[in-house]
Write a structure and sequence with these properties.
- By secondary structure, this protein is α/β, with parallel strands linked by helices.
- The protein has 13 helices and 13 strands.
- The chain has helices at 17-26, 65-92, 107-115, 132-145, 154-159, 186-192, 207-216, 230-236, 255-261, 280-287, 317-328, 331-345, 350-376, and strands at 4-9, 36-41, 53-57, 96-102, 119-124, 148-151, 167-169, 195-199, 222-226, 246-250, 264-266, 292-294, 309-311.
- Strands 3-2-1-4-5-6-7 form a seven-stranded parallel beta sheet, with helices on both faces.
- Helix 4 (132-145) links the parallel strand 5 and strand 6.
- The protein is globular, with a radius of gyration of 22 Å.
């Protein structure tokens, strides 16, 4: 019987969307934890020991662009040799290797897997738009080295020129513990009126716009759960006069409760500097019955409609303020948005995601077995 070993690669482990989705993928029933090795950075995040064996690289981020690039290069080198070593070990044992490269930036593991004849998956979550030359290079690498490419939204499908025969749409799903419709208290959510922001502490995520909106509605509570350390928050806001109604927290471990209590979710990502490939925080907010304010472009446009909130440029502060104030004054209108958000989110449940992902992986396992049989008879 053919034995398959799985290697999942994610360059930087944290509590953002792409490692969270990879964690769900690695938890599929068809990927036994004893047959899985995860290569990622030695940082806290969603990718942990419960999923499989960990091989950690020394990859840290700083405020220095030059240092970040150096650390990224060194992490790629470490990843390359780890993948080569694991593939050689499996080859000696007569095993097939399937490598899941999470994001288009797992360059070293793509190359290593291709050189070693592993079955290579590239799982694309992000839109790269900084340099057309680099984007074309990435597209060529993926087309050359991947056996299958999973992509999370129609926006990304249209943005990259990838081989259509090898590219499959795999929309993100909600975490299994985010099925909370029966636990929601709509009246309490409305009366508390908390406006929630979940994201990275980056200007292009709209954190400054979030503060401006909070200043315009001093009677409401604004809460930001930021994917960073407390020290990062202190440094970022060191010389900023924060609104009294704004609460800033680093890496809240109980996001589920925050969504459950929130009145509305703001996603203020600012195109063209930031166009999200899927917009997972939007879907998570919707699953908790939160109307959402979302950007005009991004992967969320696959599922989001204005029946579930408001589509606006994050820099249009007064339009967003007006929308929030109108909702605060009208429970029936807020409830219609809330109900529609929940209805949409049910189409992206953890069960729906697992079913689609299992179908794709079953085809890959069959492909590996066919290749193995062909090699035996050569």
């Amino acid at each position: 019987m053919l034995k398959i070993k799985y290697i999942a690669v994610h360059m930087f482990n944290d509590f953002s969307g792409s490692p969270r989705v990879l964690a769900d993928f690695c938890a599929l029933n068809c990927i036994p934890s004893e047959d899985l090795t995860i290569i990622t950075s030695n940082t806290p995040g969603f990718l942990g020991k419960s999923l499989g064996r960990l091989r950690l690289t020394r990859y840290r981020r700083s405020n220095s662009t030059l240092l970040n690039r150096l650390m990224f290069f060194l992490a790629q080198c470490q990843t390359f040799f780890i993948v080569i070593s694991l593939c050689m070990k499996s080859r000696r044992a007569g095993e097939r290797v399937v490598i899941i490269n999470n994001t288009i930036f797992c360059l070293a593991s793509m190359i290593a897997g291709w050189l070693m004849g592993a079955f290579t998956i590239v799982y694309i979550h992000e839109l790269y738009s900084r340099s057309s030359i680099i984007k074309k290079m990435l597209e060529r690498l993926v087309n050359l080295m991947s056996d299958k490419t999973f992509i999370v939204s129609q926006l990304l499908m249209k943005s990259y020129r990838l081989d259509p025969q090898k590219t499959f749409l795999l929309p993100n799903g909600l975490r299994a513990d985010f099925d909370m419709q029966n636990e929601l208290d709509p009246l309490a959510k409305f009366s508390h009126g908390t406006v929630l922001f979940v994201g990275s502490l980056k200007q292009y995520k709209g954190i400054e716009e979030f503060m401006k909106i909070a200043r315009e509605i001093p009677q409401a509570e604004f809460y930001a759960s930021l994917n960073c350390d407390s020290e990062d928050i202190e440094n970022f806001f060191a010389n900023v006069d924060l609104p009294r109604n704004l609460i800033l927290r680093a890496r809240d471990c109980n996001l589920r409760q925050l969504y459950q209590d929130a009145f509305l979710v703001l996603n203020l990502s600012l195109p063209p500097n930031c166009i999200e490939g899927f917009g997972l925080t939007i879907l998570e907010g919707m699953s908790a019955g939160c109307p959402c304010v979302v950007p005009k472009s991004g992967g969320h446009m696959d599922y989001f409609t204005e029946g579930a909130g408001f589509i606006s440029d994050g820099r249009d502060i007064m339009s967003i303020v007006k929308f929030i104030q109108e909702l605060r004054a009208d429970y029936d209108r807020w409830r219609r948005f809330s109900d529609q958000a929940i209805k949409i989110s049910r189409q992206y449940s953890a069960e729906v995601y697992r079913k689609k992902a299992d179908e794709l992986m079953a085809a890959i396992v069959l492909d590996c077995k066919e290749r193995h049989d062909q090699e035996r008879y050569l």
